[in-house]
Automatic annotation (TrEMBL):
Protein name according to UniProt: Small-conductance mechanosensitive channel
Keyword entries, A-Z: Cell membrane, Membrane, Signal, Transmembrane, Transmembrane helix
Native species: Bradyrhizobium nitroreducens
Keyword presence, Signal: yes
Residue ranges annotated for the Moderate conductance mechanosensitive channel YbiO-like transmembrane helix domain, each copy included: 413-488
Length: 779
């Protein structure tokens, strides 16, 4: 019977309700012969079919058609076996898990269909309507019931109206005497002379709440006599209505018996509805026992009228239909549907009032702790539990489950207890985890990046631990519901294999994460150590290698963990490895340029040709190296542009950051100037710059003056160089040129211009031919 109840709850789409699985009826014991064993319900349906002429004729026609069928039917050819695109082994975890899930889904679907057939017997209701419409005797009976019902109800309503008019003044008198507000008696407080603080004149909160509660109880006691008197007066017209109707039915109007019973069902339904509405108004309303606001009282009365109207009217209609010949199955189905509508009304009320009830359940803002958090959690989801309980009560009643309400109470209380324990365990465990991840200052000083790395995995660890505890709580809930879930995790069962696979994959992921973080920590620590010790070149080289090492390690770890996970769930990894090898060979042949990039980049990095921060010229492009991957080099030009050069396009690399950067000296002075004097001035400029703090660390030696490099009729070229560091070449050269220009101006040394001087002989006039003199033309 429990599986039957569980199916009903699944049909209601509530997993918490589907747990009532402890009351399933015992299956019939197999007999030694092959005869089919009929249940009482099946025998009753067969008897109804045989007694109904129309159904019996239909059954005979069906059996005759089956017997006259021509020849045995050929069995359908077996469908071709479909192979899974994923190579799952037959005894693997994945195949068994899929098989188990499919079997459970099929079982649940069949149970839902069975419960739906049990609850809904609408064909019986339809056959009753058709039979009643086609039966002249039933039609005449309906006509007789209609006019007698109108007569009885009309007379009873008239008597009720007259009495209602007579009691209006007594009712108004009682409503005017109902106490509306209970005032607290004046409180005498002991006041200090003079008062030392506000506490001396402020009552204790507990005492004030207690006095307020006593005042409310006293107010209810004062209102009780008036409310009861008003309720009695309002019920008098209802009692008169029932009395008049009963008296009329005692005459010839109440004959035959079927007519009397139908009219009594309608009269009782009306009286019951009026009585319930009067009781609701006496409990909650402006003149009720518990005074509420006008809009609240109107809301309560509206929904009370809807629920009572639908429920009582539906039950009365079902009883009338049963008296008029409706089958018992159709009667039961109609009652179930009516009560389902009533329970759905309750669901609507729960949803409309969920915020107000949540505010009443939620803990005050100033309260902290586990109890306050539990109240907040319950306030956020109380309506789900209320809806589940409401539909569960309907399912227990609709399926007529033996001891269903006691089991439902047991399961509901057990579920709430397990949920609370699970929530407390999660909060305590998460608190311990947060406390464990607090790193001491001395450890942080020793490992600066440890806290950042640990915080990366803290959210994932919290979710994983919460999920594990929630899963344990779910298994405990299944045990409370009567499902032997522990058996799933015995040796050889699907649960034990699933847990083993999850634990194995979790360990693989944990080890992979530990290796990953340890490798990154060691690399960062080595780089910091080299930088601290002054080995900047080695630190830059390791920093260049770091992205490629991390990428390679990540690919290796991801591959190993992925293969481990696939192997644990039952996937045959051998074909995957073979396919990966073939794909790798194909990529190697089809991507020769990519392979060339990788190989060239690997050797350039191994030979320490370039490092991050170097100033290089590659393939006609110059800039500072920002990143070096295993395939490309990224340069930042002086104008801010970024150049990405693949290693396959690199033929020559000019690196200006390899420890030395000499500033060249080349100056052209006029032919007439003293070159020794000019050279001495250049040496003095370099000596002056070496004494200054800004250039002392950039210049590695004095001016290396090579001498006169070129002489012509207009100028003399003096060349040399200044030995500098790799970072001081351009600053030193620019400052040297500036000072050289100023110093030459101060000493009157002329720098040779780029103009040319041409000597030309111009022919003199005839009278002055004897006086030929050369003239100079400058151009």
């Amino acid at each position: 019977m429990s599986h039957k109840l569980a199916s009903a709850f699944i049909a209601a789409l509530f997993l918490a309700i589907s747990s009532l699985s402890g009351v399933r009826a015992e299956p019939p014991r197999p007999t030694t012969n092959n005869a089919a064993v009929l249940s009482a319900d099946e025998a009753r349906r067969a008897l109804d079919t045989l007694q109904d002429d129309k159904k019996r004729v239909q059954m005979i026609d069906t059996l005759r058609a089956i017997a006259n069928a021509s020849g045995p039917q050929q069995p359908a050819p077996p469908a071709p076996e479909q192979k899974s695109p994923i190579p799952l082994s037959a005894d693997g975890l994945g195949a068994q898990l899929l098989l188990t899930v499919s079997e459970e889904i099929g079982d649940i679907s069949s149970q839902i269909a069975s419960v739906a057939r049990t609850i809904t017997h609408f064909p019986a209701f339809y056959y009753w309507i058709v039979r009643t419409a086609n039966d002249p005797a039933a039609y005449n009976l309906l006509i007789e019931i209609a006019w007698k019902l109108a007569l009885v109800v009309g007379c009873a309503l008239a008597a009720e109206w007259v009495l209602f008019r007579l009691i209006r003044r007594p009712v108004a008198f009682l409503e005017g005497r109902v106490p509306q507000t209970a005032h607290l008696p004046a409180q005498v407080l002991p006041i200090a002379d003079p008062p030392s603080s506000v506490a001396d004149v402020t009552p204790a909160p507990e005492l004030s709440k207690r006095r307020h509660s006593l005042a409310r109880v006293w107010q209810v006691m004062l209102r009780l006599p008036y409310v009861l008197g008003r309720l009695v007066l309002e019920l008098l017209p209802v009692l008169l209505f029932v009395g008049v109707a009963t008296a009329l039915l005692g005459t010839e109007i109440g004959q035959p018996t079927t007519v009397r019973l139908v009219i009594l069902a309608v009269v009782n339904a009306y009286a019951f509805s009026r009585g319930l509405i009067c009781v609701v108004r006496a409990l909650a309303g402006p003149f009720g026992l518990f005074p509420v606001r006008a809009e609240t009282a109107a809301y309560v009365e509206i929904w009370a009228r809807r629920i009572v109207g639908v429920g009582v009217t539906g039950i009365a209609f079902a009883n009338v239909a049963l008296l008029l010949g409706l089958h018992r199955a159709g009667y039961a189905a109609l009652l179930r549907m009516v009560m389902l509508v009533v329970h759905l009304f309750v669901v609507v009320i729960i949803l409309q009032c969920r915020r107000q009830v949540a505010e009443a359940i939620r803990a005050p803002a100033e309260r902290q702790g586990i109890a306050a958090r539990l109240r907040d959690r319950i306030a956020g989801g109380w309506h789900y539990l209320a809806i589940a309980l409401d539909l569960a009560l309907w399912a227990v009643w609709a399926l007529n489950i033996r001891n269903g309400y006691s089991l439902l109470l047991q399961y509901f209380v057990g579920t709430i207890a397990v949920a609370l324990i699970t929530r407390v365990a999660i909060m305590v465990t998460l608190g311990l985890i947060d406390r464990g991840f607090r790193i001491k200052p001395e450890i942080l000083q020793r490992f600066p990046g440890l806290e950042i790395r640990a915080n990366r995995y803290l959210p994932l660890l919290r979710k994983t631990v919460s999920g594990v505890i929630a899963f344990i709580g779910f298994v405990a809930v299944l045990e409370v519901w009567g499902v032997d879930a522990i058996v799933w995790f015995y040796g050889g069962q699907i649960g034990s294999r699933l847990i083993s696979a999850v634990v194995t994959i979790g360990l693989a992921v944990f080890i992979a994460a530990a290796i990953w973080e340890a490798s990154n920590a060691l690399l960062d620590r080595q780089i910091n150590t080299l930088s601290r010790d002054g080995h900047y070149a080695r630190a830059a080289r390791l920093r260049t290698f770091q992205p490629m090492l991390r990428t390679a390690l990540l690919c290796l770890i991801a591959t190993i963990v992925g293969l481990t996970a696939l192997s644990e769930i039952g996937v045959n990894v051998a074909p995957l490895l073979a396919g990966a090898g073939i794909v790798g060979i194909a990529i190697g042949f089809g991507s020769q340029k990519l392979v060339q990039d990788l190989i060239t980049g690997l050797f350039l990095l191994l030979e320490n040709t370039v490092q991050v921060g170097d100033n290089v010229s590659v393939s006609g492009l110059s800039g500072v190296v920002e990143n070096v991957s295993i395939r490309t080099i990224r340069l930042r030009a002086g104008d801010g542009a970024v150049h990405i050069v693949p290693f396959s396009a690199v033929t020559t690399i000019t690196n200006a950051s390899r420890g030395a950067g000499n500033a060249s000296v080349s100056v052209n002075v006029a032919y007439k100037e003293d070159t020794d004097r000019a050279g001495q001035i250049l040496k003095d400029i370099v000596e002056e710059m070496r004494r200054e703090p800004d250039f002392r660390a950039l210049i590695r030696g004095d001016l290396d003056l090579w001498g006169i490099d070129k002489v012509d009729g207009a100028m003399v070229s003096i060349v040399g160089q200044i030995r500098c560091t790799e970072a001081g070449r351009w600053p030193v050269q620019r400052e040297f040129n500036r000072r050289m220009k100023l110093r030459f101006q101060q000493h009157g040394i002329n720098v040779a211009s780029a103009t040319q001087t041409i000597l030309m002989h111009i022919a003199p006039p005839a009278d002055g031919a004897a006086n030929l003199t050369p003239r100079r033309a400058a151009g």
